[in-house]
Amino acid sequence: MRRIAASLSLTLAAALTLAPGAHAAGRLVVKGHGYGHGIGMSQYGALGFAQHGSSYREILGHYYEQTDVVPLTNAPDVRVLLQTTRRVVLSGVVAAGSRKLSAKSSYSAGASGGRVSLYAASGRRLGTYPAPLRLAAGRGSAFTLRGAAANGTRNGRYRGALELRAVGGRLQAINALGLEDYVRGVISAESPSTWPAEALKAQAVAARTYAVTTNVGTTTDGIDQYADTRSQMYKGVPAEFPSTDAAVAATAGQVVAQNGKPVTTYFFSTSGGHTENVEDSFIGALPRTWLKGVDDPFDAVSPRHNWGPFTFSQATVQAKLKGLVRGSFRGITVLERGASPRIVRAEVNGTNGVTQVTGPQLRARLGLFDTWASFTYISGSKKQSSDDDGGGGKKPEQPSTTVPASTSAPGATISPDSGGATPPTPGDGTGGQAAAPSP
Predict the structure, then answer these.
(1) Residue 365: which of 418, 328, 312 has the closest Cα?
(2) In this predicted model, what pLDDT tens digit does every residue of 60-104 receive, in sequence order?
(3) How buried is residue 289: exposed, middle or buried, by Cβ count under 10 Å (0-12/13-18/19+)?
(4) CA-to-CA distance for 337 and 367, rounded, in angstroms?
(5) Is 366 exposed, middle or buried (0-12, 13-18, 19+ CB in 10 A)?
(6) Secondary structure of residue 66 in the 3-state scheme
(7) How far apart (Å, rounded) are the C-alpha atoms in residues 337 and 214?
(8) Beta strand pairing call for 329-337 and 170-178
(9) Nearest Cα to 438, choosing from 263, 258, 286?
(10) Whose CB has fewer CB within 10 Å in the chain, the N or C terminal residue?
């Protein structure tokens, strides 16, 4: 359902006019629902379904309509970018190409033109090789990559091999491993390992499907996925738990498909009670039959099912919306909402005019948990305008609504958690959640 709030815009425009002589600074109060982009499977909603006895197939069928869970015809390797650095240090590898190495020794590598130079722990150069140089762990074992990786892990352990590519004087450290081992390193980084088995199985299938239907690289750069929320969180061996390994084993090779073809399975933390159409969250994306907004009856188990109100001082909101405010900030008017109803389009109101923005723009600029939000502007003269969030068929709040003093600390800021924290709080990834697909 799409709401074009024309009458609300007129009401707000009138309410935003300051009383004669009122020049004091105002403040913006924001409240909302959900955490993430709102597309596909809500992780907390899946938890709620599992707690109410639904199977992982039923969970996936609810969030991805007109799909089935089917076996893959083949399981590709996955290449995950872990580091981009001048010097890579690792241990636990037994071969560099055809050259044998010791799993007990440490090695380092650096870029040499478009090639890769490999060094022993003593600093002695062992050789210079064409890129990519593949450094393999022993069968059934893992290697250790020293330093910080893009997933936030330091000195992490990973299965498979490390492929080194020289790019502009730096090395890209890419973990190449089998699909099932990759999924083992994703589940607990995206959903807590203590969650019910059916929720973890749903996460396993969604993560596997996302991996085989998306690719962040090109045909030549050898990267399929990022290790962070730009794709989906992947933390390697430290993310493997008996419960999540069991979920991988129970769903081995299974993916979400429509007419036999795997489809992109976006997922996110918290829906607030309803998911969103892909085209109304990733603005410009094409509609997809399996990525339509659906009711999410058990999402209330999430701590971010509802959030706020948060208050921004006039100076804070003016700074956050710099370049979007014409003159002095005087409020936000929502023009269009999607099915959930997350904000599709809105106007930033200023004393010198209005600027049209998208919901994702507002979310990014203000640091909100979600685009399912409502805004109340309170001027220094106590004149107030408000905007209903469209949820549950509620009527718009009246301009005379007051904001409790306990929630109105001027200048308060919002610091949403990032996805894949440890212990993980299902959050804002892409496969996650951060980047929009191409239209």
Answers:
(1) 312
(2) 999 999 999 999 988 899 999 999 999 999 999 999 989 999 999
(3) exposed
(4) 19
(5) buried
(6) coil
(7) 28
(8) unpaired
(9) 286
(10) C
